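Problem 12. The chain below contains 271 residues. Write out its predicted structure in token notation.
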Amino acid sequence: MANIHCNYYSNALQFNTDINVVIPTPNADELMNHKATSYWREGAKYQVLYLLHGTYGDYSDWCRLTSIEKYAHNHKLMVVMPSVANSFYQDMVYGPAYLTFLTEELPEYLGRLFPASTRREDSFVAGLSMGGYGAWHVALSKPEQFAAAASLSGALMFPYGMEDRIKDPKAPWPFKAIFDSTDVAAIAQTETNLFVQIKKLQEQGVALPKLFQTVGTEDFTYQQNQMARRELEKLHVAYTYEEAPGIHDWDYWDTHIQHVLDWLPLANTTV
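Solution.
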């Protein structure tokens, strides 16, 4: 794999930002057996997974704390890991436009700089915790752009379940700057709420991205994930669900990101 750390100026964010990008390259077996030609053929593009971090994290987490580079190579998949601070993947009222960065600027930038496919059927997003919510939020914001989204231990009922934290000025998330409000009920009526997003798309007759949900049975988000399941079922949304013993930690995410990759409609080759 090629593991590239890219620092560049973002117009959407209005400051320099970091991304990690892993791109499949031939391994020793493929080189010795002359199987490397598909990597380098003219016009070759890779399917892309945008892989999102959680609260307190950044672009480096997945590469440092899991074996995502190895898993991506096995699937011939490009993986892009951006940084969004503790923004909950929103365009902030007073601050950077993180959702715009992820859904508009970053895909265009990658398509120019790297062998990244920009076709819907080749574009996926996944994340953990805050990033699990973020993955669904991003995909539901641009369903014409993303074919599938996976949440690992995600805060899928957000903003519900965060009532005390939203009103706490010392919380790690700058909610007042993000929303210009600490009124959970009001925030929940907006498309910040995943289920408001889903209902709107259903009313418009828009095809939803495929959704995947996984959570540890000892995870503090477990009950929130069960509530999200009930909401999905009320709305008759098709989704894939799994749970297993585990807490909110990298052991769980390292194991279950492999399940996500097995679930995604991957070509396991260049496209």
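Discussion. The longest helix spans residues 98-113. Students who got a different answer should revisit the alignment rule from Section 12.3.
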